[in-house]
Amino acid sequence: MSTNAFLKRLQNGGNVVVAEGYIFEFERKGYLQAGTFVPEVTIEHPELVRLMYEEFVHAGSDVVLAFTYYAHREKLRLIGREDDLVKINRTALRMAREVADKHGCLMAGNICNSSVYLPDDESTHAIIEEMFKEQIVLAVEHGADYIVGETFGDLGEGMLALECIKKYGNGLPAVITMIAPAGHTFIDGSDIVDGIKSLEDAGAAVVGLNCCRGPETMLPLLREIKQVCKGPVAALPVPYRTTIEEPTFFSMTIPGTKSRAFPLDLCACLCSRQQIAEFARECKNIGIEYVGLCCGNSASMTRIVAEAYGRTPPACKYSPAMEKHFLFGEKYKLKNEYTDKCRARICGDVN
């Protein structure tokens, strides 16, 4: 029996770079509504979704993650488009498989938080199982290499996602990533680190954290998780400058104000490229095997993560070369008199 392509990548200390963040990127581009965050763009402008797949691969993603996040029945119900469920999922999955095959990448199916789950209400569990089943079966039909279950705030829903992938996923590996709310417990009160370990023990191929926290507030938890998990660990934070005082991007305020930044003003809280590079290097140092960025990600940030993990994707051709910049470049390559005058006038550099 041949080894699954995804699992093969992770053998012998291997790692995988994964680009997420389609929702926020399309909202910024004007093709997706903040609030509902439903990926209607997939069937309204499929060429743009294909292009974003291509852009992330160009930047160094080893995986084309099918854009089926929030393409489940509950989200589509909110906008009156439940009848488009199969079409939107099939379109996203088909294009993802085509782009992955074109570039020799992996392709992943995707299920996510339902906005329905109640720990003590089994009727919601049954509803969610049917929602997950619909998307998992379609991912299998379109040749996914593995299936991601992501952004769960309750350990019970993450465990339910894993059970559904095992039940309906035709043997495909499961990657289960949870959000880490403020504090050290999930929404249901269970310990974050212990909960992640329980998902590994229950059979997830990769476990970890995604979304919600930025690099600074996710890294301490990742170090703890690496201490208890034996298998591959995932790290996909949002690229925002979360702090101990504002540990998640939901709690962030616009710098200099007391106004909530989420979601429309999170641009004022973005990490610098240097901060993303530092995060990626630290992830590599502590042995994170499945790495990327979530909401707020861009191709330029994915390239930074890929380079930190030793990749040289096509986008590296255009990596910064500031030594050639007319103001900040190396003087021996430029006309000193012109450069010095510009620095003094434009930058206020009088030295």
Description:
With 351 residues, the chain is α/β, with parallel strands linked by helices. Helices cover 43% and strands 11% of the residues. An eight-stranded parallel beta sheet has the order 1-8-7-6-5-4-3-2. Strand 4 (146-152), helix 8 (155-168) and strand 5 (174-178) form a beta-alpha-beta unit. Helix 4 (46-59) runs parallel beside helix 12 (299-308), helix 6 packs across helix 7 and helix 11 packs parallel to helix 12 (299-308). The longest helix is centred in the middle third of the chain and has 20 residues, at 122-141.
Biggest sheet strand order reads 1-8-7-6-5-4-3-2
The helix-strand sequence is HEHHHEHHEHEHEHEHEHEHH
Question: Could you tell me how far the N terminus lies from the C terminus, measured between alpha carbons in angstroms?
Answer: 68 Å
Specify the overall morphology: globular
Mean pLDDT: 95
Structural class: alpha/beta
Low-confidence stretches: none
The proportion of residues forming helix, as a percent range, comes to: 40-55%
- The number of strands is 8
Radius of gyration: 21 Å
Discrete helix count: 13
* Quaternary structure type: single chain
Major beta sheet summary: 8 strands, parallel
Percentage beta strand: 5-15%
Keywords:
351 residues; alpha/beta; eight-stranded parallel sheet; 8 strands; globular
Provide the fold topology.
Blueprint: H1 5-10, E1 16-19, H2 22-29, H3 41-44, H4 46-59, E2 63-65, H5 73-78, H6 85-103, E3 106-112, H7 122-141, E4 146-152, H8 155-168, E5 174-178, H9 192-201, E6 206-210, H10 215-228, E7 233-236, H11 273-286, E8 290-293, H12 299-308, H13 336-347
Parallel strand pairs: 1-8, 2-3, 3-4, 4-5, 5-6, 6-7, 7-8
Helix pairs in contact: 4-6, 4-12, 6-7, 7-8, 8-9, 9-10, 10-11, 11-12
